[in-house]
Write a structure and sequence with these properties.
18% strand; 190 residues; elongated; 29% helix; two-stranded antiparallel ribbon
């Protein structure tokens, strides 16, 4: 007679476990609701203020050209009286010096053909919609990745949205004006 009691206990235990397991699957009686429109998504400028940073362009580990903000110490040289950002020549010199320790740890790098000498930045002339960057090196042999780094860094140092053409001038001549291939994503209207 002992066997049927054991089976009844086993069946009762199994039923209790099924009820406990079924409870979370059924829910707690909260009714399903429709999506509620709560307005536009939040928008924020993630870059530090322009007067306290420069925007340098380095390559990511996957080979993508990325803008990298670098915080600058005050006082920072500005191109003209009343300008709101760092000097273009100083930004080019910082780019030619290469990524700092934190940027290297993040996997950022310069194009291998970009000279690693900050003294190669000679002079910058901003005239109208074009920035002329004079370098103490041969620019005709610079491959596209190195040119893009120089052009983007100069364009974004000269204008907040990088909407300036940049002409590189070196010991071997002048390259045609070029635009930065990296375009800022417009922020939605608030």
């Amino acid at each position: 007679m002992r066997r049927p009691v054991f089976r009844v206990r086993r069946a009762g235990l199994l039923a209790a476990l099924l009820v406990l397991a079924w409870g979370p699957l059924v829910g707690c009686g909260v009714q399903e609701t429709a999506v509620i429109d709560a307005g536009r998504p939040a928008v924020a400028d993630l870059l530090p203020p322009r007067e306290g940073r420069m925007l340098l362009f380095f390559y990511s580990p996957s080979g993508e050209l990325l803008p990298v903000p670098r915080i600058v110490e005050a006082p920072w040289p500005v191109p003209t009286e009343g300008a709101d950002g760092p000097d273009v020549r100083a930004a080019i010199a910082a780019l030619l010096a290469g990524p700092d320790k934190a940027e290297r740890r993040a996997g950022l790098r310069s194009a291998p053909s970009l000279p690693r000498s900050a003294s190669a930045a000679d002079r910058v002339v901003t005239d109208g919609p074009t920035v002329e960057v004079r370098l103490r090196l041969r620019v005709g042999r610079l491959p596209a990745p190195a040119r893009e780094q120089l052009v983007c860094t100069a364009a974004f140092a000269a204008a907040a949205q990088g909407a300036m053409s940049v002409s590189l001038v070196g010991q071997d001549g002048r390259l045609a004006p070029a635009d930065c291939p990296v375009r800022p994503v417009p922020a939605p209207v608030r």
